Structures are given as C-alpha cells and as structure tokens.
Amino acid sequence: MRSNTKEARLLGLQVGPPLPAADVTAACPLCGRALIPGPSTDEHHLTPRSHGGKEKFLVHKICHQKIHRTIAEKDLARRYNSWQALAEHPEIHAFINWVKKRPPEFMP
Predict the structure, then answer these.
(1) CA distances (Å), 66 to each of 7, 17, 52, 79, 95, in order?
(2) Is residue 18 part of a domain?
(3) Looking at the domain assignment, is residue 3 inside a domain?
(4) C-alpha distance from residue 34 to each of 15, 45, 76 (Å)
(5) What's the total number of domains in the chain?
(6) Which of 108, 106, 104 is nearest to 25 (CA)?
(7) Domain that residue 47 falls in
(8) What is the pLDDT of residues 11-58, one digit of tens each?
(9) Over the stretch 61-98, which tens digit does the pLDDT of each residue have?
(10) DSSP readout, 29-73?
(11) In a domain, 61, yes or no
C-alpha cells in the first residue's frame, strides 16, 4: 500500500507540509456575514442592560448602530429581544438585505 505522499510524487505533484486547519469564523447573528475582530465589531445585548440584559453577542458595528437607531430600548426589551424578531422588523429586514452584499469589515 502506497502512502498518499508517494502517490502524489509518482503523479508529478509537489508535496508540502499539511495545511493548518481552517479558521472557523463567527458570523454576525443579525446579517450572517463573517465577523472580523477589530473596529468593525461591537457587542450587543438582546435585552438592553437598562432593562436587565446581561448576555452579550458580537455583531458588526454597523448592525449594532442600525438596531439602536431604529428601535427604542423599551421596544427592544419587550418585542425585539431575539434575532428572529429583529430580522422581522421591516426597516431592519431591508437593512439586512442591503448590508449582506457588503464585505464583512464594511464601515460607512
């Protein structure tokens, strides 16, 4: 039985060291685009801290800004305290369709 390396050499293929495992990139829970650590990301509380929220989620800064510019904190706490509910808000839904066509690090 030949090893894959020997077989590759017999076929004239160049053999190098194994590739490192691919990084699993987190996705923004609002828009689904990849999150790249740095200035384009921010933390969001689904239930605002002012209403007792503790759990934080990493999101794109532009997505975070859109949420808070569109929906009042009391409404975030009462009605829009899940990613599905946020995505169903008409203005947020339109924003998601627009922003998902932009690169992950996009910041206007």
Answers:
(1) 54, 45, 21, 16, 8
(2) no
(3) no
(4) 31, 19, 24
(5) 1
(6) 104
(7) 26-99
(8) 666 556 655 554 557 999 999 999 999 999 999 999 999 999 999 999
(9) 999 999 999 999 999 999 999 999 999 999 999 999 99
(10) TTT-PBP-SSTTEEEEESS-GGGT---EEEEEHHHHHHHHHHS-H
(11) yes
- Structural domain includes residue 66: yes
What the block records as the tokens of 10 is 């017999």
Residues 70, 26: contact at Cβ < 8 Å?
Answer: no
Residue type for 47, please? T
Distance CA 42, CA 35 (A): 10
Residues in the chain: 108
CB 15 within 8 A of CB 44: no
Residue 65 phi, psi (nearest 5): -60, -40
